[in-house]
Structure formats: structure tokens, C-alpha cells
Amino acid sequence: MITSENKIRVRYDEVDKMGYVYHGNYAKYYHISRTELLRKVRISDKELENYNIILPVIEMTIKYLKPVFYDDVITIKTTIKELPTSRMEFFHKVFNQNHEIINVASSTLIFVNSNTRKPMRVPEIILNKLKSYIKTLN
Amino acid sequence: MITSENKIRVRYDEVDKMGYVYHGNYAKYYHISRTELLRKVRISDKELENYNIILPVIEMTIKYLKPVFYDDVITIKTTIKELPTSRMEFFHKVFNQNHEIINVASSTLIFVNSNTRKPMRVPEIILNKLKSYIKTLN
Amino acid sequence: MITSENKIRVRYDEVDKMGYVYHGNYAKYYHISRTELLRKVRISDKELENYNIILPVIEMTIKYLKPVFYDDVITIKTTIKELPTSRMEFFHKVFNQNHEIINVASSTLIFVNSNTRKPMRVPEIILNKLKSYIKTLN
Amino acid sequence: MITSENKIRVRYDEVDKMGYVYHGNYAKYYHISRTELLRKVRISDKELENYNIILPVIEMTIKYLKPVFYDDVITIKTTIKELPTSRMEFFHKVFNQNHEIINVASSTLIFVNSNTRKPMRVPEIILNKLKSYIKTLN
């Protein structure tokens, strides 16, 4: 439905003794990719903050298929398949420079009021921006 | 079957703008807890290295239930339910100081020869240590 | 004048491709050690927060003398030599398990009001706790 | 003498509770900037590896002047002022989007044979590439 793609060069501090990107670091890459997808849809983190909306992650699944190495440039493809209601689900695929798939993951976020720290349904501002963006695709 | 429990104090650099432990940091906590479980069973990382065995993570699932805050001391309970064959699966539960459950996760590792970088079945040395440990429990 | 000592076991994610603790990670170790020194003196981060005091680092120098390896237990010795005025300076020495010195560092913090984000002189509450602690030493 | 400039967008996981880039994270930014300077001079990490040369950091000094915030794009300007002999010294200046200076730092690296783990004088291959690059500047 909505897809975003971005590239990241693997940093030295992200690679472990085995010479692989440390498995825990992919969560950061997915996060960057979610942020870029939302930026594309014109939902900026700073704006969310002004509306007192925070988006904590409540679920994540990762399947690691191949390792990635220092200084490699990976491509992260992130997709939202459905409009969110009380949750927003993102699907991630990471590719290496040879277009091989590295890992597949999903991450689920909820909408929380930053003052009350209580979950809420998807804020209108987010829903409208997603819908507006989808219209531009047709 | 085999359970290990360890405590970690949340570090300042592990907490994000929301004041919560950054969701990507739990992978490190699970890793520490796996290492401590293996240490208890007398499988040391350094020994594995001498046998040219590395244990990359190939799958991880996490459900985040509650946030944890800076300087909190969390308890991580890690369990192996079955003897490994070509994979070793760990189950993790994290608790805060009030004994509330914070998140539940699983992580699956495979056995790889560090020279060939090829997967292998569970090495005898690992299997024997797990079995020996289980015997001491009865 | 005031000295604190604490131990940290090196985590897997903190070690780089060379097999050494990544040089950027020592800042986190010094931070933990400063927190433990302040805890000993009964200055808790959470209390500082209630007083709207934050302590950003404004200067850091590090000399790396020897590498440290995965799973090593290091000892960090942190010292305050003088009572703070507008700055608080900490001196750090890190040792490995063989009591060899690994690196020496200093870190300088200032006192900032978390609401105004303006620097201030050392808050009385901090100064008094430092003085009280010093008295107990004599 | 040789200067390189690169931009980095601050990631969510790099920001602390105060809303500032965690002070320990700048070491990673300097590292990226050194790598980009060396890449410009056609010294690649991967090539160094083939020559069994590693470049550990042995000294770092940082003065933090202003905070940087989440999602800001910073510019890191890194300079080598002198050809290396047994050490290579880099000077770093970080600027925010308003061209204000954020921090100034220096980092010193040595040349180590990755097999023997012994320090060496600057390898010819590095020195020649630096000299060739400087020629192109005139």
C-alpha cells in the first residue's frame, strides 16, 4: 500500500566480533526506515511531538537470513499494508549490495498520548496524511 | 528445562527521549542472559571460539508489554525448553522491580563453523554440557 | 578526595571487528562509574530530576593504553579531586582482570536547569551531599 | 591539509532522556568522518584489512559546546594537518543546521599489524595515498 526504500551504510561500531552487523542493530535500521516512510507521507516526528503523540513499538519479529558486513550499503524496504486503527504495522525487508535478501521483519507500533501515557486510537492527523498520500498514488 | 535468571541495571545511554529503554536495546539484554545461561551450563564463549563454533541469531520475536526506565534493575529469566538439534531456542521474560512483566521474547540460534561459515548440527561438546547440567537438576 | 570503584563485564555488542571493546563505548563505562560515585555520595539521578537539575558532559579526554576483550571484567576507578563550583570534574582509570591499566580519562560536567536549559553554579543539594560524604571519610 | 566534510542525520536511538545526542555517540560520528576522509584519499578499510593493517584509536579529546537534537542533520568536518609518522591525528568540528559549532574534537590513531598486534610506522601504502591526494589539491 505505502512503501518506502532507503539506504544505510553499515558503521564500524555496528559490526561484531564475527564481522557481521550485530543482530540487535537491525531494530535501529527498521526504525530509520519507518521514520523515512512517515516523512514521505509528511508525518514528521517533530509534528507528532507537538500533538503529544508518541509511537512506541509493541511487537517486533525478525528473521535473519544472511549476514551483512562492515561498510556495506544496505537497502531497507518498508511497507504499510493497511491503514492503522489502534496499531500500525510495518513490514521490513533488508537487501545487500548484491540484491540478496538479508532479513525480513515486522514491527508494530501503537499511538500513545505523551502526557497521559495512555494508548489511543490512530489520531486523525496521522490517518488523514496516510489517506492523502495514498490518493497521490492513484 | 534449563532456566537462568540475571539482573541488569538500565544504563543512561539505553534510554530514549520518551524516557523508556529504547526498544532495540532488549536484544542486548537477551544476549547477556543467553550468555549467562550458557555460562551456568559451563559453555563459555571463549571455549566455543577455540572449537571454531559461532552462534549467530537467526530469529527473534519480542512483545513489549510495559516500559522500563533509567536506573531500574530488571530481571531477565531465560529458558531452554528442548535440547538443540540444528537450532537452539531461548525464551526470555523480563521483569521490573515490582515483579511486573515487561516483555516476552524468543531468540533462535544456529551453530556455525567459524572457518567455513557453514551451519552444522549441534556440536557434541554443547550437547554433552547441556545433558550433564540437566542431570545435576534431578 | 572521593573515589568509587565498580566492575563491568564487557558485553558482546560492545566489541568490534578487531575483537576489542569499541573505543566509543568507554564513554558509557565512565558514565556508569560517575553514576555509581554519585550514588555512593547519595546523589541519585532521580532526585536530581526532581530538582530539575541535569548534568551534561562538556568535556572528555581519553588515552587508550591497552585493549580489552569480550567477556572481560574491567574495573573502573573514578575520582573527584575538588569540590565543584560551576563544573564537576571526574578522573577515570580502567583496569583489566590482570590489574593492568587499560585507559585513563577525564570527564567534566556542568549543572543545568532542566526547565530553562541554562547553566548554573553547583546546586547546594549536591555540594552538601559531597561535603557530608567527605566528613564520613575522616 | 586534507579536509573532508560529511553529513549525518541524528537517529532516534542516539538521543538521550535530555533530548540531546548522547555525548558518547559523537565518537561514532568522528569515526564515520575519518572513514569518509580516508575513502576520499582512496584508503579503504577493506584494503587496509588485506594488508593486515588496523588503526586503533589511542587518544580522543572532545569539547561539547552545544547540544544537537533528534533528526537534526549535522555536518562533520575532519582534517589531517600533518602527514602521519607513527601516529595519525584527526581534527573534528561538528556543526548543526544553523551552522553553529556543536563540538570540537581530536582523535589519534596508530598503525597496528593485525597479525602480530604490534604497532608499526605508517605503512607506505597509506603515506603514498595521502601524498598523491595532496598533489591533486595543488
CATH fold descriptor of chain A:
Thiol Ester Dehydrase, Chain A
Number of helices of chain A: 3
Q: From the alpha carbons, calculate the radius of gyration of chain A and give it in angstroms.
A: 16 Å
β-strand number of chain A = 7
**Uncertain runs of chain A with pLDDT below 50, 5 residues or more?**
none
What kind of oligomer do you see? homotetramer
Quote the beta fraction of chain A: 35-45%
Q: What overall geometry of chain A do the principal axes of the alpha carbons give?
A: globular
Average pLDDT of chain A, rounded to a whole number, is 95
Number of domains of chain A: 1
CATH architecture call of chain A: Roll
CATH class of chain A: Alpha Beta
Share of helical residues of chain A: 25-40%
The topology string of helices and strands of chain A comes to EHHEEEEEEH
In CATH terms, the superfamily of chain A is Hotdog Thioesterase
* Terminal-residue CA separation of chain A: 11 Å
How is the main sheet of chain A built? 7 strands, antiparallel
Structural class of chain A: alpha+beta
Largest interface: A-B, 21 and 21 residues
